[in-house]
Amino acid sequence: MKGKFLLAIDQGTSSSRTVIYDHDARVVASDQQEFPQLYPKPGWVEHDPEAIWSSVTAVTRGALDKAGASAADISAIGITNQRETTIIWDRETGEPVYNAIVWQDRRTAAYCQSLQADGVEAIVSEKTGLRLDPYFSGTKVAWILDNVDGVRERAAAGRLAFGTVDSFLLWRLTGGRVHATDATNASRTLLFNIHTQDWDDALLEIFGIPRELLPDVLDCAADFGVASDACLGGDVPVCGIAGDQQAALIGQAGFEPGMTKSTYGTGCFVVANTGSKVLQSGNHLLTTVGMRIGGDVTYALEGSVFVAGSAMQWLRDELRIIESAPESEAIAARTGIVEDVCVVPAFAGLGAPYWDPDARGAILGLTRGSGRDEIVTATLQSVAFQTCDLIDAMADDGMRPSVIRVDGGMVANDWFLQFLADVLDIPVERPDNVESTVLGAAYLAGYQAGIVTSPADIGNLWRRDALFEPRMQAAQRARLLEGWRDAVRRVRSGR
């Protein structure tokens, strides 16, 4: 077998990272780099695709250098990515026609409302499992087609390519030879029928998007082509791709129906495996493709919170009341649970189960004695409250988990995880490797390359670092959640 390592690229909302693993899923080396966030107008969020690409090439070279490895040492590459973020580029030159429109971007809210008024939401939801919301790629693609000069004509002529970030990276890595994505990323576009597992002509007509723009859709573990870019220094097969939240479910060994994970990165995403069953939520959660391996589709129920770790960035960068996110743990530990002050971080509207793009953030309940520590602690609490909204919605849909596995940058905070277990009234498990997203991408690559032979192998590699058991009194839990729900009602656009 060629190579002794697996290389996984994790292209996220605020940074890019490459991790090199040995064949036993142990980290050999890693590198990470932040890149600029662009806010051209209120509610608009963009990335420069070239900045994304530059960061990916830099961290890949960095990880290889740290590992003392070359392309010949790499068995396969896996890619995971921020999902709904939308890029359109020229097939001949590879140059983007516009900045990447990020999943957080809300510029298409009015367009979504007009489509709802046209009565098409039911068919969109039935085919895709999603909602008509600016969050997803379809309306972003339509916006670029309608607002960038000449783009619609070039797209119709087959000169342009659309993709989520995985597709763009794959195109660049393979020198423009492969235009493809996987089923998990395709399922986040509003253009993919999760029942037929194909792009849907009726959906393409609704959004006015030519099929010529679209990538091929493959399994999560598949032969995606050969990367030969200079950042690798040689040919390496790309063998796995999955959207970040689905990759995290795989990294958490969530292969059995009912298994649930919650990831705390820029946002918070709770995903529950529903097996072969397409579970349509009665509580505004999303039905999505959890994974597709060997042609077999596993579906999932998902709740999305737009602001989680980015709330810590807000405290650091905008309010400047902390110097780093880890500082929040010590602050909360000495402050204790805050009941009077409530932060609703609806900076990009509210996601599930509210789906209110026009809601805005607020700090409520301030008194003269309220200060920095209370605001920091209340912000941490808000992430747990938003998670509770999702778990309650899942429970009402018949999917209440007995335990939740967590991952992402925020889960290093023990105080936060104890508070999370308390407000959920569910045990919380933290794995010894909290970077489940990039690990899931490595597992997929390893599976396709024959290094990992079955999902059971992945399950055997999962190890628990810590268990947080609920210990809060029911009366306090009820009081806190009622205060949160009242605060949310106050910031809702339709209140």
Account of the protein in words:
The protein has 16 helices and 23 strands. It folds into two domains: 240 residues, Nucleotidyltransferase, domain 5 (2-Layer Sandwich), CATH 3.30.420.40; 212 residues, ATPase, nucleotide binding domain (Nucleotidyltransferase, domain 5). α9 crosses α14 and α12 crosses α13. A hairpin with a 4-residue loop joins β10 and β11. The protein is globular, with a radius of gyration of 21 Å. The mean pLDDT is 93. It has 495 residues and is α+β, with helices and mostly antiparallel strands.
Task: Summarize the SSE layout with pairings.
Elements lengths: L4 E7 L3 E8 L4 E8 L11 E2 L1 H19 L6 E8 L5 E4 L9 E2 L7 H9 L3 H8 L8 H11 L3 H6 L3 E4 L1 H9 L6 E3 H4 L5 E2 L4 E2 L1 H7 L8 E3 L7 E2 L8 E8 H8 L8 E5 L3 E8 L10 E8 L2 E10 L3 H10 L8 H9 L6 E3 L17 E3 L7 H25 L7 E4 L6 H11 L3 E4 L4 H13 L6 H7 L2 E5 L5 H18 L4
Parallel strand pairs: 1-5, 5-14, 9-12, 15-21, 21-22
Antiparallel strand pairs: 1-2, 2-3, 4-7, 6-8, 10-11, 13-14, 15-16, 16-18, 17-18, 19-20, 22-23
Helix pairs in contact: 9-14, 10-12, 11-12, 12-13
- Shape call: globular
By secondary-structure content and strand pairing, the structural class works out as: alpha+beta
Q: Identify the CATH class of the largest domain.
A: Alpha Beta
Which percent range describes the beta-strand content?
15-25%
Number of domains: 2
Q: What's the gyration radius in Å?
A: 21 Å
Number of helices: 16
Placed side by side, the strands forming the largest sheet appear as: 17-18-16-15-21-22-23
Number of strands: 23
CATH-assigned fold name of the largest domain: Nucleotidyltransferase, domain 5
Major pleated sheet: 7 strands, mixed
**How many angstroms does the end-to-end distance come to?**
61 Å
Question: Helical residue percent?
Answer: 25-40%
**Can you give the mean pLDDT?**
93
